[in-house]
Amino acid sequence: MCQGFKFAGVASGLKKNGQKDLGLIYCERPAHVAGVFTRNQVKAAPVILDMQRITSGACQAVIVNSGNANCCTGEKGMRDAISMGRWAAAGLDISEKQVLVASTGVIGKPLAMDRIQRAVPDLVKALHPAGISHFAEAIMTTDTVPKMVSQKGNLDGVPFTVTGVAKGAGMIRPDMATLLCFVMTDVAAEPALLKEMLVTATKRTLNCITIDGDTSTNDTALLLANGLCGAVVKHDAEKETFQDLLAAVLMSLGKQLVKDGEGATKLVEIVVQRAKSDANARQIADTVAHSNLVKTALFGEDANWGRIIGAVGRAGVPVQTEVIDVYFANERIVQNGMGCGQKTEIEATRVLKRPEFTITIDLKAGKGKASVFTCDFSIDYVKINADYRS
What we know:
By secondary structure, the protein is an alpha+beta fold. The chain has helices spanning 45-53, 74-92, 113-125, 132-138, 191-204, 236-259, 278-290, 292-300, 305-313, 342-352, 379-386; strands at residues 5-10, 22-37, 58-68, 99-106, 147-155, 158-167, 180-185, 220-225, 267-275, 325-328, 331-335, 338-339, 356-362, 368-375. β7 (180-185), α5 (191-204) and β8 form a beta-alpha-beta unit.
């Protein structure tokens, strides 16, 4: 794990099932911080609060609750978000201005603040350098497994670490980051540079995943850097090294999120290649990845390539149907806009039975390329979301 950071997760009673629902990240000294937030015009109170506080560029703690989004809760919601930060700051003996807040769960319900207030002292006591798994559990909603990753790098002979933790299984569309994601590192970097690198890495990773095409009101991704390893990210070579490791951590988290999508049974990468531009490729990849007809075919293990071609054609990008090839893994199922026959469909169906695979769409129109990670759309997704508030 990343030096200088401690984590905790406890059950405060916000969740009906009695599972952990309150988490805390603490850094032994103020860290520089950057964040990206939801593009949804409806923003939860903690998102609004964090967008105000993060302008200082400093953060020493993050308190997170699950089970309640604290969204569309009016002035009380903002007061409650502020109170969460204040109670954490008091327990840690730090400035409340350096405490960021995040929430996830049901929209429109007031937080049970008495439960949170009672739990904060135990939350602070539970802080431990190895407590990240407890924190990861505390921020889960419909997730079935916690999502964490830690990777090491080297800057001019100085080892450094990037550690990330995330949650999300539904309401996932690449419109900023993906629900809640917290990344910690022991390098030193200025807040403006952290923001630049986080935005770049998010664009390449968390903004290239989708589960259901919905954008949460609470999306928050934070990057904290405490400088304790002694390495400084400043020049281009250092930026490239750190950027690559940050992207690797975020991509690992992103894939974990999609694999754990509500009711998902498959992780599928939609690759569009030889488009006229990267933007065109991305637009087509997005359209295919979000298509409910494509996603249900993936769940049914039906090599219905017509749904893929149909999504390509409605993506709003000029294409020449008569040159398009489609591959399931290495099996070409469409050549020059026409199916390759029953034998190839049988082989493609074998690919569809895998838990992970790639669908490649070759437009033969240029050098543009993009990929988006998606999952199948199952019966369980409907059941989970039909009963979410029950």
